[in-house]
Design brief:
By secondary structure, this protein is an alpha+beta fold. It has a domain of 131 residues: NADH Oxidase (3-Layer(aba) Sandwich), CATH 3.40.109. Helix content is 29%, strand content 19%. The strands form three sheets. It has a four-stranded antiparallel β-sheet, sandwiched between helices. The chain has a two-stranded antiparallel ribbon with strand order 1-2. Strands 5-6 form a two-stranded antiparallel ribbon. It starts with a strand and ends in a 23-residue tail after the last helix. The protein binds flavin mononucleotide (FMN). Flavin mononucleotide binds next to strand 7.
Length: 198
């Protein structure tokens, strides 16, 4: 119905949703902190349960003092390509509501942080960047080395950059450098009760 970026939706969605994808080939150019903060600003306008805003973003810009440490906190397979990003972010979420002493756990902190990542990814495209989420990160080391307090969950990493030609990638990554497709909507959207059990 909407066609863009070698993808086609089933219903008339805005092309920006098809245009967002996760490349691994980045130019490695230096970007200004204000450019990254523009993306994080969009992220933190995400909705959250009771407006608790449980997301926290730890970031490093390529060329800054924290860059090498952030790269080292990715799994090796992600380091290989993400070292050419312009910025790296670790998304952390606060898993409790109110004061720490109240001990009220949050049910939705990860869901809310994921919403913020979605905002960031869309703003990245609008700003001429691509954002690539990463679950392959060293969660325990991130917590320890970046001094994440107890009660905060390390959710995921994000690489931000301007897209480069895929010829810079290893053969394995070059072969999978294309916008992926999606399951039929009917496999994931149910009018009423849950369908399927796979
Ligand atoms: C939370 C999350 C974790 C991901 N982890 C990795 C990762 O560790 N390494 C990687 O190369 N891609 C990773 N990806 C990228 C996904 O594989 C990609 O988003 C998915 O295949 C859909 O493709 P698209 O984003 O190009 O539409 C991750 C994406 C998300 C949202």
């Amino acid at each position: 119905m909407t066609k863009a970026n070698s993808r086609e939706s089933e219903y008339p969605i805005d092309p920006m949703f098809l245009d967002r994808w996760s490349p691994r080939a980045f130019t490695g150019e230096i970007i200004e902190e204000a450019q990254l903060l523009t993306l994080l600003d969009a992220a933190h306008w995400a909705p959250s349960s009771a407006n608790m805003q449980p997301w926290r973003f730890l970031y490093a810009l390529k060329g800054s003092e924290h860059w090498e440490e952030f790269v080292s906190l990715l799994n090796e397979a992600n380091q290989e390509w993400a070292k050419n990003a312009s910025a790296l972010i670790f998304v952390v979420s606060r898993s409790f509501n109110g004061a720490r002493s109240e001990g009220r756990s949050s049910y939705t902190h990860s869901f809310d942080a994921g919403t913020a990542w979605g905002h960031l990814a869309m703003q990245a495209r609008i700003s001429g960047f691509h954002a690539h989420g990463m679950g392959g990160i060293k969660h325990d080391e991130i917590k320890e080395k970046l001094e994440v307090p107890d009660g905060y969950r390390v959710e995921a990493g994000i690489a931000i950059g301007r897209i480069a030609d895929k010829s810079i990638l290893s053969e394995r990554n070059r072969e999978r450098e294309f916008p992926s497709q999606r399951k039929p909507l009917s496999e994931v959207a149910f009018n009423g009760h849950f369908i399927g059990n796979d």
